[in-house]
Structures are given as structure tokens and as C-alpha cells.
Amino acid sequence: MPTGVHIRDARKQLFDAAERVLLREGPSALTSRAVTTEAGCAKGVLHRHFADFDGFLAEFVLDRVGLIDGQTAALREAAGTGTVAGNLTAALTALFESVAVAVVGLVGARDELRDRLREAWPAGVPVLTEAAIMIGSYLAAERELGRVAADADVDTLAAMLIGTGHLMFADRTGVPPEAEAVHKMVTAIVTGVARNPLR
């Protein structure tokens, strides 16, 4: 098997294993042994592809942040369809029901990881920052279509939606909020600027 394919597969296998451990047991359970055990491989496999465990975690976080790109494209394509609140509700629910909340907790729990991430991500918290950019981009597209007020501060609205959404979904072990609760929150934030029915 060519080396490039083998490395890519090993990385994906390890990243997927890290995600499963993180979602199931939380940031404190995420160790190199837990990851390799979950992946079903020897511990040396991780160290063959990454200088150390914090380097692995930094690349894992950036890989998971990259998954938001697909969500960003889908949300932008939704501009002009449905309702603004409905589109935002769906996007926020998909984002926060993914590994996003757990990744934020992981970044908050590990100082060395935050230091590593600053090399590639100089400002903000990965995932939350990228998510705010995604929501701001969508709101800007809706503003261009006239479905959001021309004077709406889409970056501030995006930050409010992401921050409030994160608070709603932050309890990893609790029951996630129902769609109606997320829709109510979104509606409260965008009612003043949305130019279309919210339902």
C-alpha cells in the first residue's frame, strides 16, 4: 500500500477514535492510550504520525473544524429559501449536536493544546469562531437578498446566536434542547432584522 494512503487512513482512524472517546467520556478521558485502544491499534501508530499527543490533538481539532466547511456551503445555499429562523435553527442544531461542543470543552481543558492551536488559529476559539463566520456569512447572504435588514450587524448577530446556542447545548451529559427551544432562541435574536415570516 502506498505510504501516503496508509498515513491518511491511520490519521482518519485515530481522529475518528478520538471523536468517539471525546463524545462518550469527555475531554479528561482523551489520552493517547484511550485513542489507540479505541482505534484498535498499537500506541506506536499515533507516535509514528504525530510528534506528541498535543500535536495529535491540535490536528484533530483543526480536522474537525474543517468539517464545518460543508455546513457553511449548505447554509449559504439555503439563503433565500425557507425562513431565516428555520435555516438558522437547523444549522445551529446540526452544529451543536456534532462534536463541536466537545471540541470546545477539550480546547478549554488543555493549556498546551491552546498554545499549539494559536500557531494555526491566532484568534478566538476554534469551532466557535468558524461557526460564527458561517452564520455571519449566511446572514450577509440573506441581507443581500433583502430578507435581513440592510443595516443589520450580521457579525454581532452571529456571535449572539453561536454564544447562546453553545450555552443551550453545553451540557454534554444532559438532554439536548428540543428544536422548538432552539427556534425560540433564534427567533428572539433575529426578529428585529428578519424581513420574512419566521415560521
TrEMBL record:
DNA-binding region positions on the chain: 31-50
Keyword Chloroplast on entry: no
Species per Swiss-Prot/TrEMBL record: Sphaerisporangium rhizosphaerae
Domain HTH tetR-type: 8-68
Protein name (database record): TetR/AcrR family transcriptional regulator
Signal peptide segment: none
Keyword Transcription: yes
Transmembrane segments: none
Classification via InterPro entries: Homeodomain-like_sf (IPR009057), HTH-type_TetR-like_transc_reg (IPR050109), HTH_TetR (IPR001647)
Keywords assigned: DNA-binding, Transcription, Transcription regulation
